[in-house]
Amino acid sequence: MKNEPRALLDPDRLFASDPAQRKIARRLYEAIEELPIVSPHGHTDAHWFSENAPFADPAHLLIVPDHYLFRMLYSRGIPLERLGIRRNDGGAVEEDPRAIWRTFAQNYHLFRGTPSRLWIDHTLSTVFGIHERLDANNADETYDEIDRCLKTEAFQPRALFERFGIEVLATTESPLDSLEQHRQIRESPWPGRVVTTFRPDPVVDPDFEGFQHGVRELGGLTGEDTESWSGYLRALAARRDFFRALGATATDHGHPSPRTADLDRKSCERLFAAARAGKLNAAQADEFRGQMLTEMARMSLDDGLVMQIHPGSVRNHNRDLFEAFGRDVGADIPARTSYVDALRPLLDRLGNEPRLSIILFTLDESTLTRELAPLAGHYPTLTLGPPWWFLDSPEAMLRFRRATTETAGFQNTAGFNDDTRAFLSIPARHDVARRIDCRYLAELVAEHRLEEDEALEVAADLAYHLVRRAYRLEHETLTS
């Protein structure tokens, strides 16, 4: 493909416009640019790496799995069927990947100013060597070049994993998953490290569709009596051990709220019996989820798994879309979230345990200065996760540093977390995070609030060292 005179990616993108700060940011970035990528939480498909088969086509690699992209297109009246998103009822959807790609390219202007635009431009330029801005005129030419690349060995999943400099990548699976793909990866001669993450929501959230069936299946997998509270807890602990044996270092909890509880045994048994019977009201369901966060924290104290809590999303807000397409179709909306009182039962019980590690995320930026930074700046169990989901944007990343650093410092944060289903966007997302952190550090240096040698150390911590520590990945020799 022809190259435009102006590069698609400016080498100083995302740095401050002030010349002095920009020079400092550039020096900091050049020192950390090539550090390995640690991707400790995401939703890529382990099957890609166990099978190492070529990706099917540009549309199903870059568009169909990425809710950031199709939610924007849907907001402008483009039906999800036209984007190849499968319906629950098996109804007709667009099957031609080129047609899906053309629709995306024709509407690429919708992403101006969004992080998705940064990620796609980065992917096109650095992964595929395409240096033209995508539009309707070059849609077919761009599709053909990507498709040509995907048919070569250099673009198979394991080769890209190594090319991207990924040291470790975590997927996320249900407790009911067999983890067969992870077993195949571990038994293969390939040295890449892909680990699983324990996501218990299907069997600890009474509002999760199929909860009662899932609890019964949990009992069948473990041989425990999951009709009893004690058997249910033993079954969860057994599955956690199973996940740990296949590389897991963390759990992940996507509850509607961060509410925790510390109930007596009889109250737990009553709640669990009502949950199995499907007879909990909304308040009781929230109380049960809260108790389960405390139970999961107690288990983490026993088995060492790092606990991630990312509350505050109203899931499946668009009921019609949920009924037509199921979960994870981009209709989840952030909600107001309060942490101080909600976490207190758990923290009263376990908050001073140095062996317990809990990483907190938020979709409610108003809590950063008021609640989360002070909590993480005090309790030894707590660490702040990075800007996540709707907030993994340049502006939100800057706001995060400015809102939290004065109270929590840098060392009480967990590095960067890309949380993506879109494999090829991982380097782009980490690049944005590294550039924004260097921009912020350059500001501190220029204002004589930090020496540049200190800023260099912090930049490396934020890009690489903190995430390895936060997710307890340092105990093994990792491969790049």
Q: Which short descriptors sum up this protein?
A:
480 residues, mainly alpha, TIM Barrel, uronate isomerase, domain 2, chain A, four-stranded parallel beta sheet, three-stranded parallel beta sheet, 20 helices, globular, disordered N terminus
Q: Can I get a quick summary?
A:
The chain has 480 residues and is mainly alpha-helical.
At the first level of CATH, the class of the largest domain is: Alpha Beta
**Helical segment tally?**
20
* Main structural class: mainly alpha
Low-confidence stretches: 1-5
- The coarse overall form would be globular
SSE inventory with pairings:
Blueprint: H1 19-32, E1 37-39, H2 46-51, H3 58-62, H4 67-75, H5 97-106, H6 115-127, H7 139-150, H8 157-163, E2 166-170, H9 180-187, E3 194-195, H10 201-204, H11 211-222, H12 229-245, E4 250-253, H13 265-277, H14 282-303, E5 306-309, E6 313-314, H15 319-325, E7 333-334, H16 344-350, E8 358-360, H17 367-376, E9 382-384, H18 394-408, H19 426-446, H20 452-470
Parallel strand pairs: 1-2, 2-3, 4-5, 5-8, 8-9
Antiparallel strand pairs: 6-7
